Amino acid sequence: MAAGCAVFFALAPALADHPVNPDRSNLARHGIAMHGDPVLAADFDHLPYADPAAAKGGRLKLAFQGTFDSLNPFNLKAGSTAQGLNGNVFETLMARSSDEPFSLYGLIAQSIETDAERSYATFRLDPRARFSDGTPITSDDVAFTFDLLKRKGRPQQRAAYSQVRGVETPDALTIRYDLQGLGDREMPLILALMPVLPRHAVDPAAFEDTSLAIPIGSGPYRVTEVKPGERLLLSRNPDYWAKDLPIRRGLFNFDEIEINYYRDANSQFEAFRAGLIDFRDETNPQRWTSGYDFPAMRDHRMYRDSLPIGGPKGIEGFVFNLRHPVFDDVRVREALGLVFDFEWINANLYDGVYTRSKSYFDASELASTGRPASPAERALLAPFPGAVRQDILDGTWQPAKSDGSGHDRILPKRALAELAEAGFTLEDGRLTKDGVPLAFEIMVKDRNQERLALNYADSLRRIGVDARVKLVDEVQYQRRRQKFEFDVMIGSWIASASPGNEQRSRWGSASADQEASFNLAGVKSAAVDAMITALLAATTQEDFVTAVRAYDRVLLSGFYIVPLFYSSDQWIAASASLARPHRLPHDGPPVSATLDTWWRSMP
Fold first, then answer.
1. DSSP for 394-440, written as a single string
2. Shortest CA distance to 459 belongs to which of 337, 348, 340, 345?
3. Which of 110, 172, 502, 504 could form a disulfide with 106 if both were Cys (CB 3.0 to 4.6 A apart)?
4. Residue 175 in contact with residue 126, Cβ under 8 Å?
5. pTM of the predicted model, to two decimals?
6. 68, 45 in Cβ contact below 8 A?
């Protein structure tokens, strides 16, 4: 009998404690999907994009930009956390398949039970599950972690977990969450993605303190060496409890993962050129097109590749901080966006490699742009007249397009006309309203952002806007971002094919005043909140797509950001000694930060 089936049938005695409903959605299952059923059956052997025959061994050398002073990734107050801990050192109740929009399969919890309304979620833990010190993982550890993160975790965790009505631990391997009345079908999946921390090794009183103490997790690796701010070494746990589970087969193939930190992008790239790093995820288009002609590439000791990115492309843009009165008027925000000259910038700064973003879920069925709103969408939006502009409702709106000359005249005239409607006048080359000039600062964190912002600021100055670009270091940047101490900055919102609870912390009203949330713009909109509620309550894929498209239209109509651009491919460069499966996951970036499906093919 396959391992997955054996696990499932072993759960039968535990299920006797609860009434059995003939509806199969009420039975404990090996996996769960946001809509419908998970693709993989209970007896699946491995994830479709993992190679169970992958070689084990060797050291993987990675690099990140910045620094770190903490090994606690679960609290913002704990400092700058080292990369590579989640997934490698800390594990969650269930694990995601990157091949599906949003499906989870058993890991620490070998099964999940819920009903059609998802009014509760019961997790049954795998009796084999162990922390790295050999201690069994129990429902007491799960309940302890839930309570700790609810009180002291990241803002998104505190907001989500606070909605749970009650928690029960009927035995050492079972935990049940009461979710009645939430109307949130994603909540069981959010709980399934909760990490599990060891109660015996975590001091709640010191949880918010910056600490470099070696953490105890349940993952495939343990932290074995720390050089604060510079280097981290993860070593395979030979006693890793889940190494033979289908959800882990073919993953985590390196004996060691060495992570080095570099203060700036140039030094990080030079380290790669010198062979000190095995892998690089390139984000600079000029470097990608002209910077990889060096001996190791020519000698084929390294290679580079463009891998197609699946799923919605998300959005990045100059975000306006609506907490500042200068950005109150949507006409001002739209006008400021009109003068961003993507066509010239793409051709002259980025060799034409980018596509302009036109939706918060671009290049997917969730995008509203180019599609007229359906009757179902219009019904969702009906209680909020004026929340969506007519051209966006009709699907005819597109981001403004210049002539590409760098001296376009039509768009600046449109911008000035809208600013005039908002009460601004152009006097002596400056836009003012009631004697106050239209002026603000654009905060950036590196030279690449600075170059883009300077070009945008130059376009703004041509219409009389005083836009100043301020380059700050990483520490100051993060502090100001978390406290919303900026006028304009570049924000980035990664999208998935199953947007859900994370949207509350990005655009929901409750997160606008919540420190360190991703609601950088400070949006407080009843229409936005209602569309988030609708997409979370959707019971079918059709209803879900309807809600997300309506949501996209509301966000676009707010002109909260000046949309930037995206690449359809992930640009990677790697040592020729590394190998990866030919099959790539369907949803999201094909390569994760720590290359969990890769292996070393030669010494």
1. HT--------SSS--SHHHHHHHHHHHHTT-EEETTEEEETTEE-EE
2. 340
3. 110
4. no
5. 0.86
6. no
